[in-house]
Amino acid sequence: MQEFLEALEKKLRLMFQSEATGHDIFHLKRVTALALRIQEKEGGDQLVVAVSAFLHDIYRIIQKETGQYCTPKDSLPKVRAILTAAKMPGDKIPAILHCVEFHEEYTFSADGKSASDIETLIVQDADNLDAMGAIGIARAFVYCGAKKIPIWLPEKPFDRETFDESTDDVSEIHHFRSKLLRLKDNMNTKTAKQIARGRHKFMEHFLHEFFAEWEGKK
Q1: Distance in angstroms (rounded) separating the CA atoms of residues 163 and 70
Q2: How far apart are CA 38 and CA 174, in angstroms?
Q3: Beta-bridge mates of residue 184
Q4: What residues does 163 pair with on adjacent strands?
Q5: 139 CB burial (10 A radius; 0-12, 13-18, 19+)
């Protein structure tokens, strides 16, 4: 499996070399490492989990190339082509495509969650964990810089109860409320829930410090 992942990484490094929103090759590698860490505790097909984690953000490359919003489902033909070229065993491909298609589901979105297989649930957890904690905070502000989103607009209310991935929040601090602080309760596996608690507390501490400094109190 390691040789296969190394071959995939060479290809993905080229595809993601100009990615500047926090969904770069290092994000893919961290998510894969987290997914394997969770899989070791929770079970599931190790190869399916690892490869799905590595390929979960192909749709973002398509989005960048076309300039139009697309979903993970839209990336499935390209993911299948990558897997076929890499000589992935045919019996693994349907499960990988399923993981990629459904990795981006949230209890706080309009459609909620539908996936129930352990591999997809693990990839969901790993991807969401990388949006939390110190790494998550760093990625959040890389994203807002790349997208020219303000850091914080205090005059705008927090009124986004249902999260929609296709629409950016009015500021990055609003994004913390609409998504990042809700991820702790969106975790599927026991292992991810344990990791998420610490990362969630770190984000809460950051926001406490942020608002104090914003208001000139510290």
Answers
A1: 16
A2: 29
A3: none
A4: 109
A5: buried
User: Residue holding tokens 């790494």?
Assistant: 135
**The pLDDT value given to residue 2:** 85
- In 16-159, which ranges are continuous DSSP H helix? 25-42, 46-55, 58-66, 76-85, 93-102, 118-129, 133-146
CA–CA gap between residue 103 and residue 152 (Å, rounded)? 29
Say which residues have a Cβ less than 8 Å from residue 95's Cβ, sequence separation at least 6.
Answer: 45, 48, 52, 117, 119
What CATH number is attached to the domain comprising 145?
1.10.3210.50
Contact 52, 125 (CB under 8 A): no
The rounded distance, in Å, linking the Cα atoms of 49 and 55 is 10
Q: Which residues contact 71 (CB under 8 A, 6 or more apart)?
A: 59, 104
Could you give the number of structural domains in the chain? 1
HSE of 152 in the Cβ direction (CA atoms, 13 Å)?
Answer: 10
- 10-residue mean pLDDT series, the chain (218 residues): 88 94 97 98 98 97 93 97 93 98 96 96 98 98 97 96 94 98 98 98 98 96
Domain range holding 72? 2-214
